[in-house]
Amino acid sequence: MLKVTVIGNIGKDAEYKEFNGNKFIAFNVAATKRYKDASGNTNTKTTWVSCLKRGESNVIDYLKKGAQVYVEGELSVRTYNTQKGVQAGVDCLVDKLELLGGKQQDNIQQGAQQAASAAPAPQAVPTAEGEDDDLPF
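User: That's the sequence. What structure does it adopt?
Assistant: Structure tokens below.
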């Protein structure tokens, strides 16, 4: 078995697929590598990985276009014919999936910050006259 780890962004919203009576969540992840060539120019190379996760899950609600994910699973490579000639595709049968953040995570954090700033400030608790305020901590 070949094991692969991919960190990247989802290309389009995930969807359910069925193969041989088994349900899968299908999505594509774009992993982009940035590098400098010999002349110092910055270049990028994007590799697309087709991912399948067995079963049904509520995680599909979070696998939206642009979401950043960490995927671990079994690697396979397939070839197919196109008008451009023989092409290769990279597939991953997902064992482990983690959401890493990105646009949706930023929106969640902004909402939490807005809720915290709208909360009333804590008020000091009045003490009775004559109470000793020398606490040991």
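The longest helix spans residues 103-118.
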